[in-house]
Amino acid sequence: MERFENDDLQYVVDDYYDVNDFNNDGAVVEPEPQRDAAGLESFDSDFEDDIESVMSKPKTDTSAEEARNGKDIQGIPWERLNFTRERYRQTRVREYKNYENLYGSREEMEKECLQVEKGKAFYDFQFNTRLVKSTIVHFQLRNLLWATSKHDVYLMENYSVMHWSSLLHKGEEVLNVAKPIVPNLKHPGLLSQQLSRVQISTMVVKENLMVAGGFQGELICKYLNQSGAAFCTKLTTDDNAITNAVDVYNNPSGAMRVMAANNDAKIRIFDAETFASINRYSVVCSF
């Protein structure tokens, strides 16, 4: 399974500010991003050398007032570097080859895709914090950040599901998936089992319920207002078992359901109260 963080600049910023995560125990080590051009690799190396040479102050947040006064919202001191932001972006866009799995030319895709008008304000910048880092271990599966309100964000931080409050500027651990996870809910016929050291590949937080899927076909369900996990199991023992997507939804009758889709071409439906298996569908793909 190929895993990499496809964002060179994030590495530069993290190295600069010496980011200390919520909990560094059991951290997933991610290989260096793939680069397609030697020129960009040299450019990034020079950039890293420059940014390391100007680092002296500790990491801080960037406020809306500071951004209005010209401070970079990521906190990168471009004015003290040999490279401008514009030059770095131009070189990266020109030389970096991103992963693509779409067939057809870019021109054809641009005709079908809605174009975003430049110069429009979709959001107002409030603040940027570098105290929080979302961990992503797969280059495609990136549904690992959920906002349940204007001020509440749930994210993966290494082996921990974290809750971050933008009002309190404070984070707390919701569930540690590196430690043994013993399901709380037990009743006859429930296919639940203990798990440990799960690498989370996908996540959803809705209706007081957090559901996460893992690289080895795991499924973990936890009520936010209760300690521990209510239900957890391995959905499949297939060699290609990764849980690609999970969701929480209400069926037409109003009952809440949990849905999981795996690389074994199966979609599984569970009741969100009892976590009993309700249905399973096989998916046939043709290209």
TrEMBL record:
It comes from the Eukaryota. This is Transducin/WD40 repeat-like superfamily protein. The lineage of its organism: Eukaryota, Viridiplantae, Streptophyta, Embryophyta, Tracheophyta.
